[in-house]
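[INFO] parsing input record for Ribosome-binding ATPase YchF
[DEBUG] input buffer:
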Amino acid sequence: MKLGIVGLPNVGKSTLFNSLTKAGAESANYPFCTIDPNVGIVAVPDERLKLLGDMYHSKKVTPAVIEFVDIAGLVKGASKGEGLGNQFLANIREVDAIVHVVRCFEDTNIVHVDGSIDPARDIETINLELIFSDIEILERRIAKVAKQARMDKTLAKELELLEALKKHLEDGMMARTFEVPEDEDMEEWFNSYNLLTAKPTIYAANVSEDDLADDGANNPYVQAVREKAKEENSEVFVICAQIEQEIAELDDDEKAMFLEDLGLKESGLEKLIKASYSLLGLISYLTAGEDETRAWTIKKGTKAPQAAGKIHSDFERGFIRAEVVNYQDLLDCGSLSAAKEKGIVGLEGKEYVVKDGDVILFRFNV
Ligand code: GDP
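[DEBUG] output buffer:
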């Protein structure tokens, strides 16, 4: 699962990315600094893992991960090829969801590409580029389908969808607010276009340190982001990229103290990572043992054999059954054998839909 970090130059994307990955991507005070998309692997924070690992005296505890891509260089005119625009747009097309960073902090030392701080305008600038790029995709598809439709009358329905979608985008709206008619073909076509503006999006309002404690409630820039996001049912997260970068350098104890001083329970990044995970419809199931306790990422609704396949394809092919116990119930019992004695370990078959926080032992034939 990949998330792309987008936004205008100098809004704090690289700073956020660095704190997410501590990978050391470049961060500097001028546009076009980061040209190559940087990919970082980020652990999904999960309190359950440590507790479970302690119970099993596991040698290793392995969290679930998601990938973040720092997509720099998206500027006005990107869809027309400005500033390597098309390349960046192609990078966005590969991600599953978008984190759109918006500058809500004042700092006269940091140049804004458009000369002033104006989140609504900034969001529109980026979204327009995404919309233009999507319209281009639709136009190409329309040209192709129109030709085929002369031979194949069933394609008239797709043309209708394409035209309606194009109109929606031309009205300045994102594809994710388009109501796809309840029709299997239409839904499949819609997904196949892989439109940028159809991707689930989180807005990250990048504020200064002072605005963290009240979640940006008194910052009019943040309010502007909230209003824009509301129009398209997207979520907003208030972060301070600069502070996150400092926090990322600390060890766990220092971090806890630092957050307490700021009046926060968890870092903005932790909140953002968790929110991204659920935005993508992802959940974790857990495996536990002396060697390793580990979280595995699956889509909500995944059945037991396919969940087992995340560990190894043999597990899916030879699946017999799964022994399943809820993580909290297992902890309360103190051990798997105690949980079994209590009769709370389920024996589940091929149709079992795995739940978040299930601790699972798979039985399979080799
Ligand atoms: P990008 O071009 O969007 O990747 O932006 P960068 O992450 O390179 O940040 C541009 C400049 O803004 C850098 O000098 C950062 O240190 C600074 N910056 C980033 N986040 C914040 C913040 O929350 N507050 C302040 N004051 N400066 C920030």
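[INFO] Residues 23-36 have pLDDT under 50 and may be disordered.
[INFO] shutting down worker
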